[in-house]
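Why do we care about 3D structure at all? Because function follows from shape, and shape follows, mostly, from sequence. That is the central idea of this module. The next example makes it concrete: a single protein chain, its amino acid sequence, and then its structure expressed as tokens.
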Amino acid sequence: MNTRAFDPELTRPAQNGVYFVGGGSDLERLARTAACDELQVCRIDLHGCRDRHALLQRLALALALPASFGHNWDALADCLRDLGWLPAWGYVLLFEHADGLRHAAPADFEILLGILDDAATFAGEQDQPWFAFLALPDELSGRSPAAAPEACHPESFSEGRTTMQNIEFELQGDYVELNMLLKLTGLCDSGGAGKAIVASGAVAVDGSMELRKTCKIRAGQQVVIGDVAIHVLADAR
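And the structure:
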């Protein structure tokens, strides 16, 4: 697979996220691009990494995590949200040989993806570039790890439809985050998949493309994806 078509623009925080790539050559290309953009490049080799303990050790070494690092998931999440000891205007994390961990400890692998995605989202809210790329087999490269297949192909939402489908969504509070709105209306299976759909440029809010994955959607706004229009209503309580 030619994964170049999936490369995000590393200087655009709106495209922050976690991406699968094909292997060493893809990581080398991304490292060069990141260096040209003066982003901090962090390389993490997961070869032989089979569990959470080994993963946290590799991350602590590769990212020069502070001595106070607690070697648990919460501590990792906190550190990745603030890489201040590696001063830079943006960050690119490159994970080599990620497939071994994916097979040996799938639950730990999924938790890692969630923590990386959370850090990327948090950085995007601060207008800071933050990307993680994981080298996996070619058949998976180019796909956001949390995305369902249709999330990478927004045109699938319009298959078989000739008219706009209207959905009314009633808020349970003041707002709903855009990625979660897509999940709650049944247009994707998870909030992570919703983020991938938004990042692909397939979603419009009030007539304009919206790339902020956790954009706050309030009553009176309209969200359109393919031939589906979501009309957001105020909380009736």
